[in-house]
Specification:
Structural class of chain A: mainly beta
Largest interface: A-B, 29 and 28 residues
Number of strands of chain B: 11
Largest sheet of chain B: 6 strands, mixed
Order of helices and strands of chain A: EEEEEEEEEEE
Oligomer: heterodimer
Shape of chain B: globular
Distance between the termini of chain B: 40 Å
Radius of gyration of chain B: 14 Å
Largest sheet of chain A: 7 strands, mixed
Strand content of chain A: over 45%
Number of helices of chain A: 0
Distance between the termini of chain A: 36 Å
Helix content of chain B: under 10%
Order of helices and strands of chain B: EEEEEEEEEEE
Helix content of chain A: under 10%
Shape of chain A: globular
Strand content of chain B: over 45%
Number of helices of chain B: 0
Chain lengths: 114, 112
């Protein structure tokens, strides 16, 4: 089955530690995205990548880093510089079809920093 | 930057009721997406539309481009429809990536 996988589903870390969230897709999509979701707020874009070895900052990139070494993988590192890292993180990918972009989402990772 | 507003924020309905969720946006778009998020957190795409109306089962989505407004309707609502429904809009430009702007969501609870 094609889709996006994120692991783990729940992640706990101590304050001050870096943590990497995994995102893998087998949809052969070029573009991938990381969003953050907080209670009562819409999803906000952290980083996106249009192609391998290229990525761009989104609206809230401070305290995060990404890499895109393979088309299938777009891991997100939450660094100790991120002041409020506890949130729900969603990975997505998109493909252009018939002039429109259909975006697909992973199941998400809920990160709790203690 | 597009502003996306959804209403209502919360909605409680009796099973069988007809439900409407509204979405308005401020700037022209290429397409509007309706998404469903269940309590576990994963998001499923329900509709992507740029004009007119689409129907899938008991779900109907409409869009009025001139008024910058879309509605999501659920007919004969069921407790399994309980979820957060999110409206998102895609920009006019962008051949490569496609950066959506999201509303805050409407939390729907359908009571048996």
């Amino acid at each position: 089955d094609g889709g996006i996988t994120q692991s783990p589903k729940y992640l706990f870390r101590k304050e001050g530690q870096n943590v990497t969230l995994s995102c893998e897709q087998n949809l052969n999509h070029d573009a991938m995205y990381w969003y953050r979701q907080d209670p009562g707020q819409g999803l906000r874009l952290i980083y996106y990548s249009q192609i391998v070895n290229d990525f761009q900052k989104g609206d809230i990139a401070e305290g995060y880093s990404v890499s895109r070494e393979k088309k299938e993988s777009f891991p997100l590192t939450v660094t100790s510089a991120q002041k409020n890292p506890t949130a729900f993180y969603l990975c997505a990918s998109s493909i252009r079809s018939s002039g429109f972009h259909e975006q697909f989402f992973g199941p998400g990772t809920r990160l709790t920093v203690l | 930057k597009n502003e996306v507003e959804q209403s209502p924020q919360n909605l409680t309905a009796q099973e069988g009721e007809f439900i409407t969720i509204n979405c308005s946006y401020s700037v022209g778009i290429s397409a509007l997406h309706w998404l469903q998020q269940h309590p576990g957190g994963g998001i499923v795409s329900l509709f992507m539309l740029s004009s007119g109306k689409k129907k899938h089962g008991r779900l109907i989505a409409t869009i009025n481009i001139q008024e910058k407004h879309s509605s999501l309707h659920i007919t004969a609502s069921h407790p399994r429809d309980s979820a957060v429904y999110i409206c998102a809009v895609g920009p006019l430009s962008g051949a490569g990536s496609y950066q959506l702007t999201f509303g805050k969501g409407t939390k729907l609870s359908v009571i048996p």
